[in-house]
Amino acid sequence: MQFEDTSCTLSETLARTIEGIHGDTVSLRELMSLIGEQGLLLLCALATLPFLFPVSIPGVSTVFGAAIVLLAVAITLNRLPWLPEKILDRRMDTAKLLPVMRKGVGMVSRLDKWVRPRALQLTSGGMTVVNGCVLLFAGLLLMAPFGLIPFSNTAPAVGILLLTIGMIQRDGVFVLLGYLGTVLTVVYFTVLLYAAFRAGGALFS
Questions:
Q1: Which end of the chain is least crowded, N or C, by CB within 10 Å?
Q2: Are 150 and 54 in contact (CB under 8 A)?
Q3: What are the C-alpha distances in Å from 42 to residues 14, 17, 72, 73, 151?
Q4: What is the model's pTM?
Q5: Is 2 among the domain residues?
Q6: How far apart are CA 23 and CA 122, in angstroms?
Q7: Per the domain annotation, does 5 fall within a domain?
Q8: Which among 65, 168, 194, 33 is positioned nearest to 111, based on CA atoms?
Q9: Can you spell out the DSSP letters for 130-142?
Q10: What are the backbone angles phi and psi of residue 57, rounded to the nearest 5°?
């Protein structure tokens, strides 16, 4: 699947999209309409912004995580995405969503000077399928029911953001960083589950 290249930096495009959001609530359908032709990967990047800070927004990780998973399936299969009406039309409070998104854009802008086309073998050909599968897995991690635990949403979101930045702007180094972020998320979740298992064993012993 080929995504439209742009001369704008990712932070500029994301900021323009966010500034187009008006009203007390916004749906994923409206966000997709604002993004327009910039591509599925840009929507995935936008969906990570609320999680770049350890602040919990109820319901957002489920909606955005599910959207990332379905978009990743579309990327992997090289086809247009299908999203259920329930996800597309779920309303989210812009008063809580926009401030953390704007902070996220500020963080993304710090990466702009480091991103450039390189290691192109990691962003083309069969690697598109591999990258799509990793993106799908990271989306599932974002949906994991650990929302009250610090960084449980932030960790997979960082991996997703780095991976999508690398795929959008053909930067294989950022793709590798996205892989690393996803692996570290798995390690973090494994430690959490092990600690919960040990705590449960101690409680019932």
A1: C
A2: yes
A3: 8, 10, 12, 15, 23
A4: 0.75
A5: no
A6: 40
A7: no
A8: 168
A9: HHHHHHHHHHHHH
A10: -115, 110
Residue 3 lies in a domain: no
**What is the arithmetic mean of pLDDT over 10-39?**
77
Tokens 């930067």, located at residue: 171
Mean per-residue pLDDT over the chain, rounded: 81
Domain count, the chain: 1
Tokens for 51, please give them: 């999680």
Tokens of 54: 């350890």
Q: Write the pLDDT tens digit of every residue in 77-126.
A: 877 677 778 877 888 888 888 887 888 788 778 887 888 888 988 988 88
- Tell me, yes or no, whether 175 lies in a domain: yes
Distance between CA atoms of residues 129 and 72, nearest Å: 9
Most confident of 52-66, 90-104, 142-156: 90-104
Number of residues that this document lists for the chain: 205
What are the residues facing 171 on neighbouring strands? Answer: 118
